[in-house]
Amino acid sequence: MTNVPSREEIRRALEVVIDPELHRSIVELDMVRSIEVSANGVVDVTVSLTTAGCPIKGHFQTAVSAAVAPLEGVTAVNVYFDVLDDAQRAALQQKLGRGSLPQGTLAQVHNVICVGSGKGGVGKSTLTANLAAALAGEGKRVGVLDADVWGYSIPRMYGLGATRPEVSAQRKIIPLEAHGVKVMSIGFFVEEDAAVVWRGPMLHKALTQFLQDVDWGALDYLLIDLPPGTGDVSMTLAQLLPQARFLIVTTPQATAQKVARRAAQMAEKFSLEIVGVVENMSGFRTPSGEHYAIFGNGGGGELAEELDVPLLGRVPLTMPLREHSDGGAPLVLDEPGDPAAQAIEQLARGVIATSPPELDTLPLYDGDAKQPSAGELPAEARKPAGMSLPMA
Ligand code: ADP
């Protein structure tokens, strides 16, 4: 029999696995529920999550495997999850001091998916808006955070022109709702078409507020429309949301594929899982049936293959998709028969299929008792908590 590590050695190795929300080791937090080592070197580790919906599972999965696999004699690592029961949660709460458990508005969000592209104009916002509507059409609870701070276009695509979000009794910003989707955008806080100059720290704060001070409630999917490229916003989000997964949008062109690859590399650098690639503007078919590969062929498929992730959709160029985006109504709801709408529906089903199965969500600790609506509150109480959003 080969030498296999003892439970104690494995426990020590797990000390490097940090809970990204609580900022402490899972060993120190008593979140390692069990460690089993079999004679052939297979190690089973069960980690207890603070909330069942906790989308950090992917992070723990990777981090636990990375910590244990290098130990001598280990041939395989399986990571399992369960959820802290009320008593264990209370003990953890005590250990951390009051109020330290993640009670953020994201605690009830099951899947966070960042939609990114290497460059602008490839249809990232159009796909985000339509994918969200398609997921809602599949019965999912969906939110969209427009983090494309330089080119916010989600409000226009959802027909949310001049409406401004209200603030709840708990001083959380209430997202607007359109086409069955909760929506938050920097566009709601600035004058129309105003150019906002973002300095790094201000951007970080605004994004933090969008994630922590917006009352997202229980969501199956929060889609985040990233600005193009691999800059500040992506890095801030990667730090704030280690549980997020990435969906990469590209066109079939080789150049677009090349820049999209950089976005993928950024995601990998932060150990963020890539859900898949979606190719947009994949050709145009005339009413008489002729097909034109306007932006070339195959870029999405090649990128997906290279990244070893699924190609979740190829969305053709269609005039109705552009018209509906400009008109403020997602195409997938209005014209489900359109070829672009059908491709986006397929994308939605692919996204659902690649999402980890859901565990039951534990009740939150922050006593979400029904409170008076914003309208019933004095003006003072309607101000959002935290920093105020920068106005142009
Ligand atoms: P990005 O968010 O990547 O900058 P947008 O979503 O704003 O790109 O799309 C750029 C323009 O291209 C918009 O006018 C949009 O309506 C249009 N567009 C995007 N995808 C398609 C498509 N498949 N067919 C037709 N028009 C599209």
Mind explaining what this structure looks like?
This protein is α/β, with parallel strands linked by helices and 392 residues long. It has 2 domains: 7-96, GMP Synthetase, Chain A, domain 3 (2-Layer Sandwich), CATH 3.30.300; 105-353, P-loop containing nucleotide triphosphate hydrolases (Rossmann fold). The chain has 12 helices and 14 strands. Strands 6, 7, 8, 9, 10, 11, 12, 13 and 14 form a 9-stranded mixed sheet that branches. The protein has a 3-stranded mixed sheet with strand order 3-4-5, covered by helices on one side. The chain has a two-stranded antiparallel ribbon with strand order 1-2. The termini are far apart.
Sum this structure up briefly.
The chain has 392 residues and is α/β, with parallel strands linked by helices.
How far from one another are the termini? 69 Å
Bound molecules: adenosine-5'-diphosphate
- Give the number of helices: 12
Characterize the biggest β-sheet. 9 strands, mixed
Helicity range: 25-40%
| Uncertain regions spanning at least 5 consecutive residues | 98-102, 359-392
Q: Work out the number of β strands.
A: 14
Share of β-strand residues? 15-25%
Keywords:
single chain, alpha/beta, Rossmann fold, three-stranded mixed sheet, 21% strand, binds adenosine-5'-diphosphate
